[in-house]
User: Fold this.
Amino acid sequence: MHEMALAQGMLEIVEATARREGASRVTQVRLEIGTLSHVAADALRFCFDAVTRGSLAEGAELAIDDVPGEAWCMPCGGTVPLARLGDACPRCGSYQLAVTSGSEMRVKDIAIA
Ligand SMILES: [Zn+2]
Assistant:
């Protein structure tokens, strides 16, 4: 499962950060998930609960911010909104698009105790 690997990667980042800060517990993890990233938030929550069991992030709240998809359109010479990968430019219909935002998932910050 794609989300399980992502949750494990997240936990590594969270644990490394918490250790560096000398934290005993992580209370919240804030994530940014791009709408083009194909990450299912519900599945990710489930996996996060599973991988954090027994770690210092056990029971931490998972807050998820959606990052809208955006792409640079060559013919338009500007940034346009992109709902899905593979879609055409909503302004001119071109497929000469380079995704600039919304294709990633990242840990934005964590709250520790
Ligand atoms: Zn365009």
User: Anything to note?
Assistant: Residues 2-20 form the longest helix (19 residues). The domain at 2-112 is CATH 3.30.2320.80 (hypothetical protein PF0899 fold). The chain has a mean pLDDT of 95.
